[in-house]
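Sharing in case it's useful to others searching the archive later.

Someone asked me privately for the predicted structure of Dihydroxyacetone kinase subunit DhaK, so I'm posting the question and my answer publicly. Question first, with the sequence:
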Amino acid sequence: MSNSAKKIINDPLTCADELFEGLVLAYDGKARKVGKRSIVMNDLRPDAPALLIGGGAGHEPIYHGLVGKNMGDGAAVGDIFAAPPPDIVLEATQAVNRGKGVLYLYGNYAGDVMNFDIGAELAEEEGIEVRTVIINDDVASAPTSEKDKRRGVAGLVPIVKIAGAAAATVDTLDELVRITQKAVDHTRSVGVSTKPGSIPATGQPTFDLADDVIGLGMGIHGEKGIALIPMCTANELAPKMLDLIFGDDMELNAGDEIVLFVNSLGSTHMMELLILLKSAKPILEARGLKIHHTIVDSIVTCQEMAGVSISIMKLDDELKRLWDMPCESVGYTKL
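And my answer, the predicted structure tokens:
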């Protein structure tokens, strides 16, 4: 391994299993391991619809670190940068099901879509009703006319927060699906990359990016974005990112309340996030937007990848009420 990819691990080929074991320990007995690589909360509301989230390992704390009180009921965990296979999706589905059906909530990546769909078919053969809502908040990954092709990125954090609050309160799967889809429809994100992460098994970078440029709109695995732009200041970068969100089809009008999430993709420090927040706030205020809640954290990551993302969720009365509910998980807690 090169110095830039030094990691405190044991065997690079067992990272997903070992980090998963550590994650279960981090829940201090409030969650348990199920089957091969699923995590499920111990204290689940009986006779209620279930929220199952999931995705590949290597992006911690998402998704599996968002299992918790008023968050996900459980998560299916894949290998490093790989979707959870159908048998893991099925074991997690069986564990969270309480007779009212299960909602799958995950990011829009081909492997996840395929494997969760197969898992849903297997579950339905056992009489478990499954519905799916796919997160596709990345405005840089496809035009408005092709929203179904957009990637799921950091907007998943407020979306899972809303879905978890809904799962803790509603009585039907239909209501859980409706609210969760509304949360997706009210959320937009854009990210930038300044340095790639690395693959634990090889130490090799996940993509190539010159030192003097920023990947505007790049995905968390290095997927193509809008453009490569010269390295610039936070004051110059904030409007470029926000303009992509403002230029999309989600109406943001004066007086609207929003959740604002400034996320580090792994190694970008809190100092930089706070400076970007300072640069972004006057732009939001000039549009008359009211920030109801701000998150500044490193939650949607790709190992030591450097870069930031900005997510905006537009609140209505229903979403605001669900947002204001407290939640607790290893990856995100709101008092």
